[in-house]
Amino acid sequence: MNCEPIGTVYTPFETTSEAPRQGFRGDAEGVVEVDPPYREGLVGFDGDRVEVVWWADRADRSLLTLDRDADRGVFTSRSPARPNPVCVTECAVLSADPAAGRLRLDGVDMADGSPVVDLKAPITTHCWDDDST
Length: 133
Description:
This is TsaA-like domain-containing protein. The protein has strands spanning 7-10, 29-34, 49-55, 65-66, 69-73, 86-97, 102-106, 114-120. The chain is mainly β.
């Protein structure tokens, strides 16, 4: 398996403990800078929201249960502390400069300098039956 970062997110949070537990609960701005080889992927970008897929590179990867609740495993949560710390945060887009590879965002919950793995258009409707579990 090969997964390369496409860029970096810059936020006001120097450590993971400073970052909000969920991006939508905070009022924090940040900037995603997409690396030059991947900037073409922003062509036509005009959304007001984006899902940032990022790697919590400073998270504890040895945890399998939640610190606050040993009766629950990390796979029942959105905690970044997990064997593969892939995280997804939906953010509001404040401004976009696709040519420069920059997205200014609101609602970030990442530590400064976290690697960005992907950017996705958010899902606006679900794609499963209402009866599914």
